[in-house]
Structure of Fructose-1,6-bisphosphatase class 1:
Amino acid sequence: MKRLTLTRFMIEEQRRSGLLRPELRLLIETVARACKSISHAVGKGALGEVLGNLATENVQGEVQKKLDVIANELLLEANEWGGHLAAMASEEMETIHRIPSRYPKGEYLLLFDPIDGSSNIDVDLSVGTIFSVLTAPADASGREITEQDFMQPGSRQVAAGYAIYGPQTLLVLTLGTGVYEFTLDREVGSWQMTDGPMRLSEGTCEFAINMARHQQWSPAIRRYIDERLAGEDGPCGKDYNMRWTASMVADVHRILKRGGIFLYPADHRTSGKARLRLMYEANPMALLIEQAGGAANNGLERILDVEPQGLHERVGVILGDKKEVEAVAAYGLELREIAHS
Ligand code: F6P
Ligand code: MN
């Protein structure tokens, strides 16, 4: 079967819409190339001596895995010299990485989580790379890029996607006009389209949440999950399934393919302390999910509308099937209304 490669898809997209700039296309090609190298490193496992922890912690106080650092380096090196970027930011780096002065500077800003779900690395379960692309503010050319230049809501992303390193290596991408999946042909080394435009199935009875955190949920989240757990005899009148991979990429990918809802809500007890990061986890996933016909909010507002206050800011995440996401939001609203009446 003849399939469309990632390169051809983007060139045709460029011709069709006239909106995809060649510089952005080349940037995505570079990110995709780095993901191939990461896939290779992940696949080597113990044989490549890439498993296990380092003695270091990242800016969020999490122990770094060897692969966190390897993948971060691969992304930095691949993207530094191409001339498409003004700066990069990563879960693994405290502050932004400016393009060194020996290379030409471009207009894009790239953010990434090099290895998402790193606790899965050592047990041979799926991990992924998440990325988001913004445009540097117009007044940034000719001056040094600052962290402030990254402080743009997710609605301003010009591209977002993830690679998933599972039984197959996939790249799931949006350039703002639909979501497309490409599978890595390992022998040839090319990305071939295997799905798209992807549409989220509606009405699926599946939810993904870390059940062990139920004592931290707000009454709205508790009510939503309890009603689903009640199954056929409960208010939903049907049985639900629960799935949790502990890798956002894998859990969101399942939802993109099969429907359902993913929740990592903010902690109700500690006035909104959340787990997932806005800029390089929640925003790219929210754009992908919205582009596939779903919805994404933080319990109060659309994730893509959140005005970021910091590079590593965390946010509650509820995304997937629009009706389900709206149901959670409606419970929240009802409870807030009761509390304020
Ligand atoms: O990057 C954070 C992350 O690893 C996500 O990929 C995943 O959804 C979540 O944390 C897992 O959290 P927990 O450890 O609570 O299962
Ligand atoms: Mn992550």
The pocket of 6-O-phosphono-beta-D-fructofuranose (ligand 1) is lined by residues 116-117, 210, 246-248, 251, 264, 275-276, 281 (CB under 6 Å). The longest strand covers residues 108-116.
